[in-house]
Design a protein that fits this description.
By secondary structure, the protein is α/β, with parallel strands linked by helices. It has a single domain, classed as Response regulator (Rossmann fold). The protein is built from three helices and three strands; from the N terminus they run βαβαβα. Helix 1 packs parallel to helix 2. It is globular. About 20% of the residues are buried.
């Protein structure tokens, strides 16, 4: 799993997510965008870049843990069915 912030030095998280999804050996790894950005446009941009979920800052640890567990269960289910 990758926890990615939208605002990073050198390259933003949206670009990193796109690169992971397009041609990386880990293209199927779950990605959660964790960021202070929260506008509908930011969320749409994150999902268009390939993230699986979006969590705003400040981080609610329970919420983040639940989202991570949900993505892991989804990924396990897909692996079992060959999807």
């Amino acid at each position: 799993m990758v926890l990615l912030d939208a605002m990073m030095p050198g390259m933003n998280g949206f670009t990193v997510a796109e690169r992971i999804r397009n041609g990386s050996d880990v293209s199927n790894v779950p990605i959660i965008m964790v960021t202070v950005l929260s506008s509908p446009e930011d969320r749409r941009r994150a999902f268009e870049a390939g993230v699986n979920d979006f969590v705003g800052k400040p981080i609610d640890r329970w919420d983040l843990k639940a989202r991570m567990e949900s993505l892991f269960k989804l990924q396990e289910g897909q692996a079992e069915t060959g999807a």
